Amino acid sequence: MNVILFGPPGCGKGTQARRLEDRFNTIQLSTGDMLRAEVASGSEIGRKAKAVMDAGHLVPDGVMIAMIANRIDQPDCKNGFLLDGFPRTTAQARALDEMLAEQGLRLDHVIEITIDAAVLAERLAGRFNCARCGAVYHDKFQRPKVDGVCDVCGSSTGFTRRVDDKADTVKARLKAYDEQTAPLLPYYQAREVLRRVDGMGSIDEVTRQLEAILEQA
After folding, report:
1. Does the active-site annotation cover 195?
2. Is 127 a catalytic residue?
3. Is 18 a catalytic residue?
C-alpha cells in the first residue's frame, strides 16, 4: 500500500501517519528526514544534496527521486509507504510516478486532509513537541497525560515549540501550502487516486476516515 499524504501544517498529518503506520504495518517517509539521514551518512546522494543545500539552492528533482527510490527499496518498506513532503510540483509528481512504474509499483491513494484556516491557526499557535522523540502535543487539544512527561517515549527532558508556529507566521505558511498543492490536486484527481478526508473532527474521527480509505487498497 503506497500512499501520499497531503495537508496544510497543523492538520494532524504527522499524528495520523504514526497511527496508520501501526495499523497497516507501513512506514512514514518524510523527505526532510530522508535528506538529513543521507547527508549524515555521507552517501553519494547525501553529498550531492549537501553541496546544493550549502549553496542555498533547492535539491534537484533527480536527486530527490533517487533518494526516495533507494529508501523504498529497503526491507522496512516491503508493505508500502506513507510519503510526506513530496511531491511539491507536477513535474515531481510525474517523475515519482515514472520511478514507481520502473520498480513495478504504483500509488494506491493520494489523500488530502482538509481543514478550516481559522482552526489551523489556532492549532498551530498552541502546538509543542517532545524535545527527544518529536511527539506532537497541543496546549488545548492534546496535552501529555502527565505534565512534563512525553506519552510516547517517557522523556521528561522538556518540550519545544517551533518558531514558525507563531500566529504571525501561520498565514504565510498556509498560503505557501495552497500555492504548492493547487496544481498537484487536479493531477492526481485526473489519475483517479485523490481522496479527501475532513480534518475538522477529533483525532479518532479523522483516523477512522483514513482507515476506511486505506482498507480499500
Report:
1. no
2. yes
3. no
One-letter amino acid for residue 180 of the chain: Q
* Tens-digit pLDDT profile for residues 144-183: 999 999 999 999 989 998 776 666 677 777 888 888 888 8
Active site residue 162: yes
Dihedral sign for Cα atoms in the order 77, 33, 158, 163: negative
pTM summary value: 0.78
Summarize the confidence of residues 16-26 as an average pLDDT. 92
